[in-house]
Amino acid sequence: xxxxxxxxxxxxSGLRRALENGEFCLHYQPKVDIASGRITAMEALVRWEHPxxxxxxxGDFIPLAEETGLIFPLGEWVLEQACRQNxxxxxxxxxxxxxxxxxxxxxxxxxxxxxxxREILAATxxxxxxxxxxxxxxxxxxxxxxxxxxLKQLADLGVHIAIDDFGTGYSSLAHLKRFxxxxxxxxxxxxxxxxxxxxxxxxxxxxxxxxxxxxxQVIAEGVETQGQLDFLKKxxxxxxxxxxxxxxxxxxxxxxxxxxxxxx
Length: 264
Ligand code: C2E
Ligand code: CA
Ligand code: CA
Ligand code: CA
What we know:
binds ligand C2E; alpha/beta; globular
């Protein structure tokens, strides 16, 4: 058996017990307003502290969790943990920021999804306006009519909505106009070579222009270099996220960063 298949088997067999054993944790990556340099939000990214493999990134097990149905309890755990942590930061007296949570297409289709969001907000005492939901463009476009209705319900709650991996999922302007969204998030695949690849630069430029004309915020993910940031500045992109500012950090390190920036 090759190493990939073996790793997959180890992950699969451990996944079910991982939640009971408390092996998941969240890392937090700041989103930054480009004009002011201030942190506007943090994205919660789930990690698995595997007893043998060490820290496993989300991309390696979220698809498995979706196949096995674990995504439902895991998704709820992530939402609740993220809201709880954010509320905790607010109670410590830090400037209130949004906490962004990635939601799988499977979770969205749960009949009681909106109700669960309400319950989690009530249980953690976090206000809806400080919760941001990230949904991928592909999921939204799988069933645009369903998405329009669901996003409207979320928006009515006061939750902030971002379309993730934007540019990879074939939205039309006509669709975008119908969605109650606040933010378009440019997929990092377009940012990687934006300084050297004319097509990627054209796509990023078009997304920013479209967002600006629809009065939507536009955030670029995967920003790693000053050159990429300069490109975004020139086009008046509103926010950025990526290793250039910070990697996703464990809660304790994120706390330290939040306290430091307040001391400026
Ligand atoms: P995503 O939502 O598009 O998240 C961005 C991914 O890019 C994250 O990987 C993040 O760690 C990584 N990243 C951040 N900055 C940079 C950068 O400057 N350069 C590069 N090359 N990468 C960067 P991660 O954490 O492994 O997550 C992968 C995907 O797994 C996420 O993609 C998201 O779709 C999913 N995911 C993560 N956490 C959750 C979760 O709690 N629930 C669900 N349903 N999905 C999650
Ligand atoms: Ca995301
Ligand atoms: Ca992405
Ligand atoms: Ca993604």
